[in-house]
């Protein structure tokens, strides 16, 4: 087969894929005169648009190409607000009017629900944000090998887009990150090289509670912050504490693991404490650098309100909060039910949930550090059948075994909070043989300008 290096073509976008990119199909003739199908993934395009693209090696079956020209723009196409949008891997849909994004999310949830045999009319319109910017309370920036700080380039985990701004992160969070970036430049500190595993700085995590204003900075590095680094570290600590008095926790986290993630073997508190205080639904939470805490607090509050509204908890009832994390749902529910048990696999989250319950004067909640499946079996034996069960699993879903165990335990009402409509739809299908009816699915947009959508759904036992 002759290799064709490049071919420029005009294609029509049929739909967007699960990562938010436009998709087109082209039939090409090969040198033998046979028709061959070429599937194209074209980011930053919208359904129905005609687009000019230059495709590398178009004889292959599937190629990705960036649009060179949009020949007929979708009516919902808008200019991206962020100067980094074209390259940065953080947002995929800034070119899509916000109402269009919300409609796309609703349609997606309806489709996956229908594919599992449920009535799509049970899915309500996605609840969006009034102001879909600066919504994130946590960001993880990465250092490039030359020490510059930013976010990963779209589809390229080796390349870092140097940070000038970020419109989905809190403003003060970005300002503090830029301060750190300047300090790294001044001291000519090296970023970590993922190939050679050399270099010092790996990530900067910035968290800020929108409720208390408290901020945490966490620098992940391959060495301790002493010896030859001491002067440089003293400089940034003095500068940050002076310019950003809201920084109540400044952490240095040693990370020599080869995996590219924000974990730590040894932590050093450079200033303040090792956690910050945040709030949800009026309850106070301690948040450490590795604590899972909802990253869009405005919309997470709506999720909590919806879950309470759907569940209609009563003081006479017992409840299980499965995949409870640090108790984001457990605390608001505990004050409304008789007894509550939270189950979660990460021990530090369970320790945190216990402490959060104590800090908030909640005495009717217990927490168990266990895998969902074994934890559920254990709790059902000691606690008995709950009237109410809430589950909020990770993106991979709860899975058939857990869902069937839930079905067998026969709670009257099940509230399913999901961050992945696909696994949610297959999970709830598992409950049908146990006599449950899906009543309502409410999508909520926690991540504007991305493909992600959360759902809160109610299932009720038939008798
Ligand atoms: C989407 S988070 C929800 C946490 C909590 N409901 C909240 O809103 O903060 C999912 C949680 O499930 C936990 N998890 C993951 N796999 C688990 C398993 N097999 N058993 C129990 N918990 C698990 C994670 O540690 C995480 O805290």
From TrEMBL:
GO biological process, one term: rRNA base methylation
Listed GO MF terms: rRNA (uridine-C5-)-methyltransferase activity
Keyword Repeat: no
Active site: 419, 419 (nucleophile)
Pfam families: tRNA_U5-meth_tr
Major enzyme class: transferase
Binding site for S-adenosyl-L-methionine: 294, 323, 344, 392
The EC number(s) this enzyme carries: 2.1.1.190
UniProt keyword annotations, A-Z: Methyltransferase, S-adenosyl-L-methionine, Transferase
InterPro entries found in the cross-reference section: MeTrfase_TrmA_AS, MeTrfase_TrmA_CS, NA-bd_OB-fold, SAM-dependent_MTases_sf, U5_MeTrfase_fam
Protein's recorded name: 23S rRNA (Uracil(1939)-C(5))-methyltransferase RlmD
Gene designation: rlmD
């Amino acid at each position: 087969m002759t290799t064709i290096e490049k071919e420029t073509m005009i294609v029509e976008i049929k739909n967007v894929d699960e990562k938010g990119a436009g998709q087109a199909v082209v039939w090409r003739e090969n040198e033998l005169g046979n028709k061959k199908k070429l599937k194209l993934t074209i980011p930053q395009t919208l359904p129905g648009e005609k687009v000019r693209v230059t495709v590398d090696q178009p004889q292959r079956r599937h190629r990705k190409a960036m649009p060179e020209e949009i020949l007929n723009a979708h009516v919902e196409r808008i200019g991206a607000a962020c100067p980094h949008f074209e390259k940065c891997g953080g947002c995929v849909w800034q070119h899509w009017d916000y109402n269009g994004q919300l409609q796309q999310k609703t349609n997606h949830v309806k489709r996956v629900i229908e594919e599992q045999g449920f009535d799509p009319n049970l899915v309500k319109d996605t609840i969006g944000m009034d102001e879909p910017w600066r919504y994130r309370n946590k960001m993880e920036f990465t250092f490039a090998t030359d020490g510059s700080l930013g976010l990963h380039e779209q589809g390229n985990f080796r390349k870092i887009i140097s940070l000038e701004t970020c419109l989905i992160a809190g403003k003060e969070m970005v300002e503090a990150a830029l301060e750190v970036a300047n300090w790294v430049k001044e001291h000519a500190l090296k970023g970590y090289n993922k190939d050679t595993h050399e270099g010092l700085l790996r990530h900067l995590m910035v968290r800020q509670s929108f409720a208390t204003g408290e901020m945490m900075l966490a620098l992940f590095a391959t060495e301790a912050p002493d010896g030859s680094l001491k002067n440089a570290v003293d400089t940034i600590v003095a500068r940050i504490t002076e310019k950003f008095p809201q920084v109540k926790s400044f952490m240095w986290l040693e990370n020599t693991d080869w995996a590219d993630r924000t974990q730590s073997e040894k932590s050093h508190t450079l200033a303040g404490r090792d956690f910050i205080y945040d709030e949800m639904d009026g309850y106070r939470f301690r948040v450490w650098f590795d604590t899972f805490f909802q990253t869009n607090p405005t919309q997470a509050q709506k999720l909590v309100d919806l879950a309470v509204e759907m569940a209609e908890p009563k003081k006479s009832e017992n409840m299980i909060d499965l995949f409870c994390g640090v108790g984001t749902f457990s605390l608001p529910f505990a004050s409304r039910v008789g007894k509550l048990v939270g189950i979660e696999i990460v021990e530090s989250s369970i320790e945190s949930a216990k402490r959060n319950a104590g800090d908030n004067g909640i005495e009717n909640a217990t927490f168990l550090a266990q895998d969902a499946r074994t934890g559920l079996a254990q709790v059902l034996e000691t606690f008995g059948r709950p009237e109410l069960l809430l589950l909020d699993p990770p993106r991979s879903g709860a899975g058939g075994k857990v869902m069937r165990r839930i079905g067998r335990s026969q709670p009257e009402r099940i509230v399913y909070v999901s961050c992945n409509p696909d696994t949610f739809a297959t999970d709830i299908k598992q409950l049908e043989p146990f006599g449950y009816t899906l009543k309502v699915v409410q999508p909520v947009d926690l991540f504007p300008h991305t493909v992600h959508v959360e759902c809160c759904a109610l299932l009720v036992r038939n008798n």
